[in-house]
Specification:
The chain is α/β, with parallel strands linked by helices and 380 residues long. The protein has two domains: 179 residues, 3-Layer(aba) Sandwich (Rossmann fold), CATH 3.40.50.2000; 179 residues, 3-Layer(aba) Sandwich (Rossmann fold), CATH 3.40.50.2000. Helices cover 37% and strands 16% of the residues. The protein is built from 14 helices and twelve strands. The protein has a seven-stranded parallel β-sheet with strand order 3-2-1-4-5-6-7, sandwiched between helices. Strand 8, helix 8 and strand 9 form a beta-alpha-beta unit. Helix 5 runs parallel beside helix 6. The longest helix has 14 residues. The protein starts with a helix and ends with a helix. The N terminus is likely disordered.
Length: 380
């Protein structure tokens, strides 16, 4: 009887295959590594059979370092294995129909352009416009290719810039999806009742990120402690020589440790300038036009009130006076006033943090993964 019953058991449906074609080095100290790891974890949480292609960084355990919860495969590439993999994909389309294969997704334009041209279902995520003629040509090939399924961008500002360059781009195939935070990392805001007020900055020390401004602000607010998480050793050494006593440099910390520490602070800082540079930002470009800073979502998740620069792209995430205080960029005096007001008013800190969290459920990695998959499956 048991054997007869087994014959009527419906076999499990195969999981949808998804290949994330990354240009990132994992693990590494760069924010894009955090983004890729967290997004892959959330996509795998939807039940996808996911493989991540990336360059190996340190030998640290990726899952422990980024707190990953869901199983997915990681293929670490070299230039040779990458070329061999692409050659295999090129030949495989003559054996099986490309449209029956995996969904290919990522930020690495040249290989994604080839996959899309060969008919494989392909989508691209962009955090800035193409920076070279080669990248722009690759994006145009992807958008016009038979395999193109969609384009994901991290801000409405970036969406507008890209559509101006690509008028042929179908608006229905574009998704604006800001960065996010894990839903299980969201902690109810609270007010610490003892000790000096502690403000935190988390991120790189590149030009325009606001670290220099923090030093000026700290000198005017000696009763507030300012902790800076991040920075390269040489950058830290240069700044320490002229930092006031209430500024503390914690250096680079593992992502998981940073998330735990954020809950110990009273204020989160994002003092971006009008011009913001990254590790590879060309001279003609400023990230302030289209960025989606991870730190904002992590601050909100940790229950911190935020002081962030009043930039159009940040207003896509924050509302001045309601979910954050937003002084003008590059204005130390305005930042001093905003931080002083928060330091003196626990109720204001709590109100801003709670209001910010009311919108945070929309900005989770899990929600982002669902929206990306909906876009790609709806375009089939």
């Amino acid at each position: 009887m048991a054997a007869a019953a087994d014959r009527h058991v419906k076999p499990a449906a195969p999981r949808r295959r998804f290949v994330y074609v990354s240009a990132s080095t994992l693990p590494s100290q760069e924010a894009n590594a955090v983004h890729v790891a967290q997004q892959c974890d959330a996509l795998a949480g939807l039940g996808l059979d996911l493989r991540l292609r990336a360059t190996r960084g340190s030998r640290e355990d990726l899952r422990e370092l980024y707190g990953l919860r869901h199983a997915f495969a990681i293929d670490y590439e070299t230039p040779l294995t990458h070329r061999l993999w692409l050659a295999q994909r090129r030949l495989a389309r003559f054996v099986t129909r490309p449209e029956d294969g995996p969904l290919y997704y990522g930020r690495r334009l040249p290989p994604l352009a080839r996959l899309a041209a060969w008919g494989y279902p392909t989508a691209v995520e962009l955090h800035h416009p193409p920076r070279t003629a080669k990248q722009e040509a690759a994006l145009r090939r992807i958008v016009g290719a038979p395999g193109f399924r969609g384009l994901v961008v991290v801000s409405a500002q970036l969406c507008e810039a890209l559509r101006a360059h690509l008028p042929q781009l179908d608006a229905a195939r574009v998704l604006v999806a800001h960065d996010g935070v894990r839903a299980d990392r969201i902690r109810a805001p609270s007010v610490r009742g003892d000790g000096m007020v502690r403000a935190v900055y988390c991120g790189s020390f590149h030009a325009g990120k606001g670290v220099e401004l923090i030093l000026q602000v700290a000198a005017a607010l000696p009763a507030v402690r300012f902790d800076l998480i991040g920075g390269l050793p040489a950058q830290i050494a240069a700044l320490q020589a002229r930092a006031p006593a209430n500024v503390h440099f914690l250096g680079h910390l593992p992502h998981e440790e940073t998330q735990r520490r954020l809950r110990e602070y009273d204020i989160g800082l994002a003092p971006y300038g009008r011009i913001v540079r990254g590790a590879r930002t060309p001279e003609h470009e400023s990230l302030s036009a289209w960025m989606s800073p991870l730190k904002l979502f992590e601050y909100m998740g940790a229950g911190l009130p935020i002081v962030a620069s009043d930039l159009p792209v940040l207003r896509e995430i924050l509302q001045a006076g309601t979910t954050a205080l937003m002084p003008p960029p590059d204005d130390p005096a305005a930042y001093v006033a905003a931080i002083r007001a928060l330091a003196a008013d626990p109720a204001l800190r709590l109100g801003l943090a709670r209001a910010a969290q009311d919108s945070l459920r929309h900005f989770t990695w899990e929600n982002r993964a669902v929206r990306i998959l909906d876009l790609l499956q709806g375009a089939r």
